[in-house]
Design a protein that fits this description.
The complex is a heterodimer of chains A (277) and B (306). Chain A is mainly alpha-helical. Chain A is built from 13 helices and 5 strands. Chain B is built from 10 helices and 12 strands. The termini of chain B are far apart. The chains are: A mainly alpha (277), B alpha/beta (306).
Chain lengths: 277, 306
């Protein structure tokens, strides 16, 4: 959110704002960007001077994406990754100065990136890496455990709703992205090759939770039933309604498992507000 | 977040006119493993807004003074500051209680796009009004004075009318901000634009300078050959040390930071650079009175250079 451009008396259009727009267009390589005749040359010509900034911008932002998407870079190779990033950066520059917030829709970009079309699992791996990035940088919060429920009267429990832990992401992936992610980030190159060879990219999808309830990042594989329960609770459904989604004989155990793994950071005992018409 | 002022572990007082180092991720483990081998550190605020890095900074802050140096506030943006980013930086400052807060004379954002670089401004009356307004807004949000760093630049604009040191002098006069004198940036920009580095130094308002920066630079190749690049990827160059020595005579000792951001060496190498800065500072501190920023106990800081 930025302020309105300040208006300088005598200028119909703020000339610095115009220059900054042109500079941005030149850096991000819009083919039809107007040239910047205001740049002085001298011993080195203006284009070479501007190139230094272009290389810095693309290099810094590619570096930020490399930190968030190390598995993607390993899967496609550094050169391909850099080329994909350059295209992504030009189309979608960061909306925040905090570069940990950059790249939220990189998976969507990869899904439409023609040169990567044969790597159908790539967008799913990127979604997982974004969830990992979110888990690492979301604010820390203590998770609640079963003891937090013990004090509540039994008749209140059916209406309980929960606040998802701020680091939690639930992912439905159509490819075995968790297995690919774990394999490709194996540190030892020989072990990595073996791990990757053991993954069948055509295998089915996975339902995953990513969170950092304690200090360590966790990748939790959930059964379809546990995932449905978690999804309903994260979406704010009352406990009784969520438990109705799964078989009665396993419902309580599944819910206990989610609690133990730190999926929730708060309990809401009030009913959900009525939707506003 | 609660304020940290009541926490007895938290160090107190201003940052001394001694050498510090930029704290970077490869050295986190070393800083967590034992007492820091340097009096103060500076971090790039944007890298410590959340997550594990913030936890490291909280731990380091318990043992030594911290300076918060942001790179993404874009004080030169004609469209004004990003209010959310300013609030996050102010929240970080309220939590960490840094000895110094600083930013650059540069821009990096336009129309909500953040370009992650320190881009050059035309030095005009219009730019000066915009930067003054943005600096005033930043200082109001932080509730304190901030330091503005002279940039390294690779190009100049034909419609610039104000020499850079005059622009900074006027910024200080209009907003009450202070300055970082980045000695390496003076050498880089002076080479790139044919300025005289000592004249630049003389033209800065000495009393407003609250910190020095020192870093390594490299020579551009190819089409840009002849220019210097502010790469922070090696030791401080001899001509930068010489200009730093001249700055001691013209300006006096101040907190002085070694920045090393690429090809980052092992911590002992970085600390050796800080020790070189400390030796120069110590030589000039000897005859300087406390009210100019010298420590009442200079002997203690000499351990670094020993």
């Amino acid at each position: 959110m930025t302020l309105e451009p300040p208006l300088i008396p005598g200028n119909a259009m703020n000339s610095l704002l115009r220059l900054q727009r042109q500079f941005r267009a030149a850096l991000l390589g819009d083919a039809d960007a107007p040239p910047l005749p205001e740049i002085l040359g001298g011993a080195v010509d203006p284009a070479a001077r501007l190139d230094i900034y272009r290389n810095n911008v693309i290099g810094n932002l590619t570096g930020a994406l490399r930190l968030t998407y190390p598995a993607i870079e390993r899967l496609v190779g550094a050169e391909f990754f850099a080329a994909a990033c350059a295209r992504y950066i030009a189309a979608t520059p960061p909306g925040s100065a905090d570069l940990y917030e950059y790249g939220a829709d990189f998976s969507d970009f990869l899904a439409g990136f023609e040169p990567a079309r044969e790597l159908a699992y790539l967008p799913d791996v990127a979604r997982l890496e974004w969830a990992v990035n979110q888990a690492l940088h979301a604010s820390r919060a203590p998770a609640i455990d079963a003891a937090a429920l013990a004090d509540l009267p039994a008749e209140a429990q059916a209406d309980l709703r929960f606040t998802a832990h701020p680091t939690l992401s639930l992912l439905t992936l159509t490819h075995p992205a968790g297995a690919i992610w774990e394999a490709v980030l194996t540190a030892d190159p020989d072990e990595r090759d073996a791990a990757l060879a053991a993954v069948d990219p055509a295998a089915g999808g996975e339902t995953l939770a990513v969170l950092r309830a304690a200090d360590a990042l966790e990748l939790v594989r959930l059964s379809p039933e546990a995932f449905a329960l978690a999804r309903a609770l994260v979406d704010g459904q009352p406990l009784a309604d969520a438990l109705d989604l799964v078989a009665p004989d396993v419902a309580v155990a599944l819910f206990g498992g989610l609690l133990t793994q730190g999926f929730f950071s708060g309990i809401l005992t009030q009913p959900a507000p009525l939707p506003i018409e | 977040m609660a304020g940290a002022a009541s926490d007895a572990r938290w160090g107190a007082g201003p940052i001394p006119a001694a050498a510090g180092v930029g704290l970077r991720f490869p050295h986190h483990a070393a800083f967590l493993a034992g007492p820091p081998a340097v009096g103060w550190v500076e971090v790039h605020s944007e890298n410590y807004l959340s997550g594990p890095a913030l936890a490291v900074l909280e731990t380091v802050r318990a043992d030594c003074q911290v300076s918060l140096h942001s790179v993404g506030l874009s004080l030169g943006s004609a469209g004004g500051l990003d209010a959310r980013h300013l609030r996050r930086l102010a929240d970080l400052a309220a939590w960490i209680e840094p000895g110094l807060i600083s930013e650059h004379l540069a821009w990096g954002a336009v129309d909500h796009a953040h370009l992650a670089d320190l881009l050059p401004l035309p030095l005009t009356e219009e730019s000066l009004e915009i930067v003054c307004r943005n600096v005033a807004q930043a200082q109001a949000a932080m509730g304190r004075r901030i330091l503005i760093e002279n940039p390294s630049t690779y190009l100049q604009f034909s419609h610039s009318t104000i020499p850079e040191p005059e622009f900074l002098t006027e910024l200080v006069a209009r907003t009450g901000c202070g300055l970082i004198c980045d000695v390496n940036n003076i050498v880089v920009s002076a080479t790139n634009h044919g300025w005289d580095p000592v004249s630049y130094l003389r033209a800065l308002p000495a009393a407003a300078i609250g910190e020095f920066h020192l870093a390594g630079h490299s020579a551009a190749a190819g089409e840009a050959a002849g220019l210097l690049l502010d790469t922070h990827d090696r030791a401080v160059a001899p001509e930068v040390w010489a200009l730093f020595d001249a700055a001691m005579d013209l300006i006096g000792p101040r907190p002085s930071l070694i920045e090393w951001d690429a090809a980052i060496p092992a911590l002992p190498i970085l600390l050796q650079e800080a020790a070189l800065a400390e030796r120069i500072l110590a030589r000039h501190r000897a005859g300087v009175s406390d009210d100019l920023g010298a420590s009442p106990d200079p002997g203690k800081r000499h351990e670094l250079a020993a």
